[in-house]
Amino acid sequence: MFPNSESLLRLVTAIVAEISDDW
Q1: Nearest Cα to 11, choosing from 21, 23, 1?
Q2: Distances from the Cα of 19 to the Cαs of 1, 2, 6, 8, 16, in angstroms?
């Protein structure tokens, strides 16, 4: 799906940031 792990890492970081901000 993702060509490199960096893109996936940035995506996961954005999701975690959203969850942490919501909590």
Answers
A1: 1
A2: 23, 22, 20, 17, 5
Least Cα distance to 15 among 23, 3, 1 occurs for 23
pLDDT score at 2: 57
State the Cα–Cα distance between residues 7 and 14, nearest whole angstrom: 11
1 CB contacts (<8 Å, ≥6 apart)?
8
Q: What whole-number distance in Å separates Cα of residue 23 and Cα of residue 7?
A: 25
Predicted TM-score (pTM) of the model is: 0.50
